Amino acid sequence: MNHYKTTYSPGWAKFCRRMLKLMGWTAVGDSMPEPKAIVLGVPHTSVWDFVVSYFYYSGYGKVAHTMIKKEFFFWPLGPILRAAGCIPVDRTNASTMVRSMISIMKEEDNFHVAIAPEGTRKAVKRWKSGFHLLAKETGAAVYAGYFDWGTKRISCGEKFELTDDARADLERLQAYYETLGLRGKHKDQYVTH
Fold it and tell me: Tell me: the pLDDT tens digits for 170-191?
C-alpha cells in the first residue's frame, strides 16, 4: 500500500531531464531498481543540491523523497515541497526523525529516499549514521550517490553493501567518497574525514 507518490508522468520526467541538461548537468547511470532504496547525496554544501538532485531523479519518472526541516513548510513553499516529495521532519530529535522514517518505509511497498549523510550543508568530519539504521530496519538498498559541481555529473552511484558495524561502514563510505575527488558547490564546506 502506497500513501506517498512514487512516480511522475512521462511528460514531467522529460521536462526534468531537459531542465537538468539546461543547467549543464550530465546524468550518469540509472535509477535505483529496488522497491525500497536509499540514495546518499554527497557532497551536500548548498540548497541547490536539492534542485539538481530533484531534476535528476525525477527525470527517471521516479520520486526520491527527502527529509526537510519542518520550518520550511510554510505557505506557499510547503505545498511545493510536498509535491516534490519532501517530508517535514523535526530535526531537534534525530532518533525520533529516524524512527519516523523507518515507520514510513515499513508501511510503503515502494519508497526511495535521498539522504545527505553529512546532515548539514556545513563542513563536518563525522557523518550521521541514521541512513544505516534506516536501511538495516527496512531492508532498503543503499547507493553511494553524488553530485559533483566540478564536473557537473550526478549519479545514484554504486550500491554500497552494509555490515552490522555502522561506524566501520561510515569510515569505509567516507574513504570511498574521498577516492571520487568530488567538489561541492561550496568546496570549502565538504570534507570526507
Answer: 999 989 999 999 988 866 655 5
